Here is the input.
Amino acid sequence: MTNARRTVVAAALGECVHVAGVMNFLRLAEAAGWRTVFLGPAVSSAEVVDAVEAVVETYVAARRPGERFLETYRRVGAAPFKERVYAAA
Here is the structure.
């Protein structure tokens, strides 16, 4: 599988200087031929467990039989995941 067919999904914990680092990394990944998705400044480190649980629950509710996470994400988009994460925060 080539890099052009793979995807890097990234986020930052909270709104901090690390967002700039993540954005720079994604620019480098794109220049190397990777598809990138930036979920944005996500949540504080104290809320990470709740955010991961919200993402998993959204995936389980939205997936089709045999569908992997990225397939579900591409089909339904980021909105349902972001809504659950930010509602859990």
